[in-house]
Amino acid sequence: MTSGTPPRDGTHTPATIRQLWQLLEPLHALVYFAPESYEEAGTLGYDTAERWPLYFAFRAAPLGTVEPALVTSLFYSFDPSMVERYVTGAWHTAPPERVLAARARAIDRALRSALGGRIDSPELAEAAQLARGAAEAARTAGRPLAAANAALPWPETPHGVLWHAATILREHRGDGHLAALQAHHLDAVESLVLQAGVGAAPVAAFEGRSWSAREWGAAQDRLAARGLLAEDATVTGAGLALRTAVELLTDELATAPWAGLTAGETARLTELLLPPVLDVVGTGLLPTQGTLGIGMKYDYAN
Fold it and tell me: DSSP H helical segments within the chain, as ranges?
């Protein structure tokens, strides 16, 4: 399947699905970086000297009172010891229902600050309605993080609806991405090494996942043995082909929620999302060097 060929539902190409993710991701991610999130997390009693306590609490709270082992399986790219460190005791600091309330307050405040007068615009309300339509159509069987967020009540404000829809859709995509990585026999650290190898981000950007230099080097050796990495740790042609296949499968698996929207509606949503996304990016709160490869372009034709 090429990027210009419609997928099985006959409506949207993988490239379209990828573009929608690239637009929705910054809206979702704001909750992990906004000062309002640090304030709300601090009020609950979480350490706000760094980002990770609020990240793990805010993102895992929809799952309920869960143990680190489950979070490790779902937050695939993080070293298990890191998950253990931040999730153990998280629900003693505050139960998930209080964390979710704080998360909702944080993103409400953060979006009001970032979007300014756009917050009450008809265009934002229209974007929220379209995104909600896709999120409500998401099939969450086998998608635990998407299912957990989809089970939460919808906010009442348009910007709250837009953020909640973006969250369901990005977790739906993320759950599918883990399946795509495993289908291509990439473990957690190997997936990051290969991501660095294609140039999605420098190796230093992945250090926040807490894998040791020994674990990183061992993953490089395993990938090199498969012919996927060169001696300088950049991808070989086979490595790029495999990473492209992972991304294509991820995009295909993320297509289903959008089947209820016409091509014209997804084009309209893309148009509507650009101004608020630029507002969010313009706050300077999001990292300039992410690890998701949002700016990467993959040639699905080859």
Answer: 14-29, 35-44, 52-60, 68-74, 80-87, 90-93, 96-115, 122-136, 144-150, 158-183, 188-197, 213-225, 237-253, 263-282
